[in-house]
Fold these 2 entries.
Entry 1:
Amino acid sequence: MNESRKEVLIDVQELSKHFVCGERRVEVLRKVSLQIDSGEQVALVGASGAGKTTLMHILGGLDRPSSGTVYYQQQDILALKGPALDTFRNRTIGFVFQFHQLLPEFTALENVMMPALIAGRGFGRARGPAEAILQEVGLGKRLEHKPGELSGGEQQRVAIARALVMEPQLLLADEPTGNLDSGTSDEIYRLLQQLHRDRGLTMIVVTHSQSLADRMGRTLQMVDGDIVA
Ligand SMILES: Nc1ncnc2c1ncn2[C@@H]1O[C@H](COP(=O)(O)OP(=O)(O)OP(=O)(O)O)[C@@H](O)[C@H]1O
């Protein structure tokens, strides 16, 4: 993409979050500001407890900050509530977590169809895109398998397919390979890079692995609730 034509997808200003535990106030995010351009691939690294998951949850509309602003393009997502927030999340953001959180009783195909069914698309319209994205992540021959019949890496591929089936602009992945061996982690990262290249997908990926972070376009380091680099 031409540098001069890059557009800011996410603009975060002075985001703070604290929790109150009994008498104690725990400051988890301390006036974090950051911008992510459309099409960027960003790694978020930092020690355990630095605030990475909390930041991802706020960026994804799953949690609210104590203060600060989060804009997607020109939209103030903290002003969204209830069904409007649900719709925004469903259409704009795909999530992948460390533990795939697939529904064990449903097949890979049904799991991937779920976001479209929740969005009110009929079975017929949900099936085609779900099949196509499962092909794209290399699971065209595993459509009818349930999560328990798939390897850890395959389960995470299904979770990635489910995150992308609504064609979100942004993928948020919180330690997507934290539970996998290094060879399988490597495959998942290659898949994320392929999806980034092929779809121009913007992604923010939390990882503890420096070598995996090095493959992303930019690394943001969190220390004690703030971004230092
Ligand atoms: N609901 C909560 N109530 C109180 N404290 C919380 C709550 N959620 C998170 N915290 C605290 O916020 C801090 C940051 O947590 P967070 O999960 O964002 O860190 P992290 O950088 O993602 O860590 P990890 O790499 O271990 O997942 C931690 O000290 C945690 O104990």
Entry 2:
Amino acid sequence: MAVPASSQWHAVQESSNRSGVLSSPFWGSIRTYLQLPRTCQVHSSSRICGNLSHVSIYPIVAAVSTKTPPSTASIHSPTEVHALPTILVAEKLGEGGLELLRKVANVDCSYNLTPEDLCSKVSLCDALIVRSGTKVTREVFEASKGRLKVVGRAGVGIDNVDLHAATEFGCLVVNAPTANTIAAAEHGIALLAAMARNVSQANAALKDGKWLRNKYTGVSLTGKTLGIMGFGKVGSEVARRAKGLGMTVIAHDPYASVDRAHAIGVELVPFDEALARSDFLSLHMPLTPSTNKMFNAQTFAKCKKGVRIINVARGGVIDEGDLVLALDSGIVAQAALDVFTEEPPKPDNNLVSHEKVIVTPHLGASTVEAQEGVAIEIAEAVVGALQGELAATAVNAPMVPQEVLNELTPYVVLAEKLGRLAIQLVAGSGVKNVKVSYTSARADDDLDTRLLRAMITKGLIEPISSAYINLVNADFIAKQRGMKITEERQLLDGSPEVPLETIEVSIAHVESKFATALSDSGEITLEGKVKDGVPHLSKVGSFDVDISLEGNVVLCRQVDQPGMIGSVGNILGEENINISFMSVGRIAPRRKAVMAIGVDDEPTETALKRIASIPAVEEMVYLKL
Ligand SMILES: NC(=O)c1ccc[n+]([C@@H]2O[C@H](COP(=O)([O-])OP(=O)(O)OC[C@H]3O[C@@H](n4cnc5c(N)ncnc54)[C@H](O)[C@@H]3O)[C@@H](O)[C@H]2O)c1
Ligand SMILES: O=C(O)[C@H](O)COP(=O)(O)O
């Protein structure tokens, strides 16, 4: 059959199964975000997305994928097909949060686990919820063997979670950043006032029968300068309250907005100036490698003599040994500490027992109200993540709003398929340079491609490794394998109604099993687009084609002559292989052409050999999706 020069010949048969599990954005997004292994089906006995009690995530017994996190395969047996996910709650969580979790999961509340117990339990869990008392170490992720998909930190600080390991293992970490802000700020103010008036010491003395009115004369707050170190959520709430107490409030925070500070009457100042001017310093930065022990002998030396320090942030931001010396020498007059480098501190900790120090056992977030709020905030985040939503409080993954995700879903599928096809065209190994080009009528800031890049990476790497890749770890794994993935965009004229026109994946400096896939510049190049919500392959090398990316793909380069489609079609028909789509792209009539054939079934070796031996077929490759 001759093919019209300007068009492709479409179509033998369209797949009728487009409305299955994956086509719904909701169910699709479950897979997309957590990238549940393809051996896992997401089923619902109800189509009401809000009612998760009907959702189950389980492995298909007859696996179609070679990639399954090992524990998933070993834990679920066919008899557990409708099992709910399991969430381990390793520290006390408010009842409201537990109720939410119990609606969608088996909830195992096991507190005070040893590190060994945590490691052994975690291999049976899909999510883990902790507060600051549980160290979620690399060993925990290793022990989970890929089953753990989400760690929920019921609070703000995530310094007890090994984020690098979480990312490497593709485990999402979410926190509950807002619900305990006020509680922490109120505790900061409580410590400020208690320290200034020696409340703790006087209380202890009086209970010990000592009426020491002179000894416990305090200092006033009004008119004094409070330096807020870390002007984030807690810091700014402390600032508001301190202003109400008549204090002058200054703050140091390299990342805070001057306008936000001015709006509540706070002057942002450099670090050394904050130290030099403050009568009281209240610490509110996170513990990171750069804030670790940032309050040490050198910094105390820059402080106003007799400064008083409150710490409701993290013990590790202070060098505790240096603080003891500064208290002994009078550089620091008093300290009020809620947090410690080691929690609980050792009984002989001489900072805790110091007479100029008052302490509380990490109580900043411990109000009834805050704990209920945190529990609900983290339960919603964990449930959302298990549903595949891109959590607004994700700590180690890009946050993509649900609307954006819904819109991008078919492009996400396309991206993974293009990566998967492109890597199969490489002869040998050593893919180092991959370029992804997007054409779109949307401005750069209106098109979030992180998810697409992650899925292309997944498609490129999974077929050639044992790595298990999702949005969380895609960049990490690509980097680890020395694969550089660059992106470029071409802005098109026209309506920005659809997010993307085309996605092109090209792999440079490699040989191809199918030379026709090499572009004029010698790179393996595939282009795809989304048509009616379905991903299509639209270009192979320099040849335009058009097949829907469902099933698997046979690519042939042949001499463009009558009867080619019939010959290939006949062979596949005789071998009982269903063709879903067929398209021929060519440069000019009777010259070279590329035939792309979508097949529902896997062709036998014999069928492929028969196609390859058609005299006009010059090269052929079979690609699995
Ligand atoms: N004691 C408790 O129970 C309790 C309760 C809640 C929060 N916290 C801790 O309080 C701290 C603040 O929490 P948040 O919710 O306000 O966090 P946040 O992220 O809203 O604020 C932290 C601020 O610190 C700033 N910062 C970072 N590095 C800094 C540096 N080197 N110098 C100065 N500022 C720096 C950031 O820019 C940010 O504005 C965290 O350490 C958190 O873990 C403790
Ligand atoms: O970072 C936080 O949110 C606080 O330190 C609270 O920690 P907690 O949940 O262990 O009380």
